[in-house]
Amino acid sequence: MASSFEKYQKRRLISSYFSVVLSISLVLFLLGLLGLLVLNTKKVADHFKEKIALTIYLKDSAKEVEITQLKQSLALAEYTKSAEFISKEEAAEEHGETIGENFMEFLGYNPLQNSIDVYLLADYVSSAKLEEITNEISTKDFVEEIVYDKPLIALLNDNVKKISFWVLVISAIFTLIAVLLINSSIRLSVYAKRFTIKTMQMVGATKKFIRRPFIWKSVRLGILGSILAMIGMAVVLYFLDKNFTELQLVEDKVLLTALFAFIFLMGVFITWISTFFATQRFLNLRTDELYY
């Protein structure tokens, strides 16, 4: 009878430990994913910014040497990511493919112009800086017009600021939730052993002596939960990097290492501090208060 009761108690204990590890790993995993989002918010925003082209239309009277010099100067400019010359013939062919017919057969001539598409570095994709760049390039006599999507750039910059702000707010809230959830799991685990704690105290064990095994057990569970969370994060990061290689999510090894270290330390710290206060609470209770 005693043997079956001991087995039952052991199963309950294992189940309790499993639920604690699972809750820790899930919460830290979600916190880690949010951390990845925070770290890569700017990178994702920069990726979209650098897809916006500044198109420079050239006059038909522009000489080849002038076009070549302009393209080279643009390619070497501090604000340029890449510059591509598109001849009027190439533009006509691309436009014909888009609309599905050869419009030059109706017109009898090619109305399009030679142009240079300039893709800027993300830090220069703002209304003020683009205005400065266009004013500088417009001084060239052979430049007909400079076009870029002003409403899109203004909207993009505005949304990036809003998204960055709310991501930080959500991160702070989620960190608090993570602490509270892990703390609740640890407190429930300690609560199940409140009579053991009080018995040890009644036979003369010091508070420090009683707390130590509980804290070490919880810290080990926290380490295990952290490791499982980091494995999950690594798997997600691998698939994201494989499918979105242009974002270069694993390029910054230092930041990723810091994030993984943060998740690990969070698992250890929260379990330690939660167990400390949970055991302290039951140590300070009277025996009759343990039943409530």
Would you kindly provide a brief summary of this structure?
This protein has two domains: 14-47 and 170-291, no CATH class; 53-148, Alpha-Beta Plaits.
Helix content: over 70%
Rg value: 32 Å
- Overall mean pLDDT: 78
Question: How many E-type strands?
Answer: 4
Biggest beta sheet attributes? 4 strands, antiparallel
Question: What structural class results from the helix and strand content?
Answer: alpha+beta
Give the oligomeric state of the chains in this entry, treating copies of one chain as homo and distinct chains as hetero: single chain
By DSSP (H or I, 4+ residues per run), the number of helices equals 9
Overall number of structural domains: 2
Shape: rod-shaped
Sequence of secondary-structure elements: HEHEHHEHEHHHH
Low-pLDDT residue intervals, each spanning 5 or more residues: none
Beta-sheet strand percentage?
Answer: 5-15%
Q: How are the strands of the biggest sheet laid out side by side?
A: 2-3-1-4
What gap, in angstroms, lies between the N and C termini? 29 Å
